[in-house]
Amino acid sequence: MWFSGCCHFEYRRQRSALGTRIYNHCGPGNVKIRVQYYYAERDPCVTPGETLLYANPNLGGLNFAYYIGGC
Fold first, then answer.
1. Average pLDDT over every residue of 2-27
2. Nearest CA to 33 among 13, 5, 10, 7?
3. 58 secondary structure, DSSP code
């Protein structure tokens, strides 16, 4: 598990062989995170609380996710 202040990214093994990752944003308001996949990156906005992140067949497995700013 990686911690960055209040927000953190963690791995949880689920039904998928690649597992599920969770980004937990515990601050107020929406924030933008960078989700790093094996082949590419995406920058979605997330709301406070847990956001489930899944592997994407076109982008590959999940490597990491981190805060990059406001939405």
1. 60
2. 7
3. T
